[in-house]
Specification:
Helices cover 75% and strands 3% of the residues. The protein is mostly helical. It has one domain: Rhopdopsin 7-helix transmembrane proteins, CATH 1.20.1070. A 3-stranded mixed beta sheet has the order 2-1-3. α2 packs antiparallel against α9 and α5 runs antiparallel to α7. The longest helix has 34 residues. The N and C termini lie far apart (72 Å).
């Protein structure tokens, strides 16, 4: 629609959600409630373990605790509203609510992508330069990297959210998605979105391409070191760990890449909704499983923590 036409400014948007089939909504509610519960329990458990276990006070687990925090925040931006959409008929969201949701999505999504690259670099230093690890990955540097991660996330979020909502919206107001993502919101703008799509593509590439490059280069060096190991059992365990990490990274970056780096990201809304489920809901659940529960240090810390909590509960009952 051209500017200057007499249209009412949009004050609310309608989110169509994942499906309009009533018979699927109860099943999807149960599935996503389970996923969200596992996300909260897994990530809160990891944060608690790292906080209370002194052997886990290392750069790797510091970054892992930050990742768990980001996963909780990221999942909580989308999942509660998605669960509500399966139970009620009112699917509307205010204009300001849509802006806030998009801004939070960009902050946590960008932060997670950058943090995954930092974690890959941390593993590269630990495996390829073990004698210099403590010197390079100092506590001061780790805190600086996390601060930079959030700063970049806020900057990218401000640019991308401002890019989307600086356009006029005068109707229709129906978003074919389960949250206020940038491509479907741009589709509702009442003006030409060519420039907005170019900005979306550029800043998405500005985050995704460098972080993916750091991850691929870091793991290439790590795999080269693994191949030189003399023990076949050590090689097998290392390859298994790297394979699980790279699988989750592929799901996260692959789905984000296909959604945000399309030449015309407005054209495949149903396809994008399915892809978005991976990086907004599924990945936050998988991260603690992949990065922690396969780790012997975390397992040992979990056993100590469970033993401590069990003894405390018994003592409280005796009192």
């Amino acid at each position: 629609m051209a500017l200057g036409q007499n249209h009412t400014t949009v004050t609310r948007f309608i989110l169509l959600g994942l499906t309009d089939q009533a018979d699927l909504k109860q099943l999807l509610f149960a599935i996503f409630l389970l996923i969200y519960s596992m996300t909260l329990v897994g990530n809160l458990g990891i944060i608690d373990l790292i906080r209370t276990s002194s052997p886990l006070h290392t750069p790797m687990y510091f970054f892992l605790s930050v990742l768990s925090f980001l996963d909780i925040c990221n999942s909580s931006v989308f999942t509660p509203r998605l669960l509500t959409s399966f139970l009620i008929t009112d699917q509307s969201i205010s204009f300001s609510g849509c802006v806030v949701q998009m801004a939070l999505m960009n902050i946590h999504g960008t932060g997670e992508g950058l943090l995954l690259a930092i974690m890959a670099y941390d593993r590269f230093v630990a495996i390829c330069h073990p004698l210099l690890y403590r010197t390079i990955m100092s506590k001061h540097l780790c805190v600086q990297l996390v601060v930079i991660t959030y700063a970049v996330g806020v900057f990218i979020s401000a640019v991308q959210t401002g890019n989307a909502f600086s356009l006029p919206f005068c109707g229709p107001n129906i978003i074919d998605h389960y949250f206020c993502d940038i491509p479907p919101v741009l589709q509702l703008a009442c003006s030409d979105t060519t420039t907005a799509n170019i900005i979306l593509l550029f800043f998405s590439a500005l985050v995704i391409v460098p972080t993916v490059s750091v991850i691929l280069i870091s793991y290439a060096y790590i795999l080269a070191i693994i191949c030189r190991m003399r023990s076949l059992e050590a090689q097998r365990k290392a390859f298994s760990t790297c394979a699980s990490h790279l699988t989750v990274l592929s799901l996260f970056y692959g789905s984000a890449f296909l959604v945000y780096l399309q030449p015309n990201p407005e054209s495949a809304s149903a396809y994008n909704k399915i892809l978005s489920v991976f990086y907004t809901i599924v990945i936050p659940m998988l991260n603690p499983l992949v990065y922690s529960l396969r780790n012997k240090d975390v397992k040992a810390a979990a056993q100590v923590r469970i033993h401590y909590l069990s003894r405390r509960e018994i003592c409280q009952k005796d009192i």
